[in-house]
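Quiz preparation item.
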């Protein structure tokens, strides 16, 4: 157990006032302190990993994705077949046009597992896919 830090009387009064704040008021105060004094409540040790993982974090939080066919690759016929598996309502000519006009959105606003499955099918056929 960590010992409670002893504060001066002045700081103790400020701390007591802060404890009375609502969550929104605390968030506003924290934002003000960061802006005014250039400080953050985040410990320095925690800041480094958070900064490094900042690019990956939004992808984990996303609930819907867009599957984009970026290139057909060397096996255009295989990619066309994979596109038709993913989008069974497309005819052969429509699927061919879609593959030839890459980069093109295949699926929009789909769940992560559906996006991952589509990506695997296209990549297995030799195409290149991006998830956005």
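Solution:
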């Amino acid at each position: 157990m960590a010992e409670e830090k002893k504060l001066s009387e002045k700081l103790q009064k400020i701390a007591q006032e802060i404890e009375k704040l609502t969550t929104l008021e605390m968030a506003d105060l924290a934002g003000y302190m960061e802006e005014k004094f250039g400080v953050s409540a985040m410990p320095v040790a925690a800041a480094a990993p958070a900064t490094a993982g900042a690019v990956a974090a939004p992808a984990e939080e996303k609930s819907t994705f867009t599957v984009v066919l970026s290139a057909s690759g060397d096996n255009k016929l295989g990619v066309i077949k994979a596109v038709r598996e993913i989008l069974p309502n497309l005819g052969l000519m429509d699927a061919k046009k879609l593959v030839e006009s890459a980069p093109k959105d295949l699926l929009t606003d789909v769940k992560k597992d559906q996006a991952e499955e589509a990506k695997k099918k296209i990549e297995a056929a030799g195409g290149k896919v991006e998830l956005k």
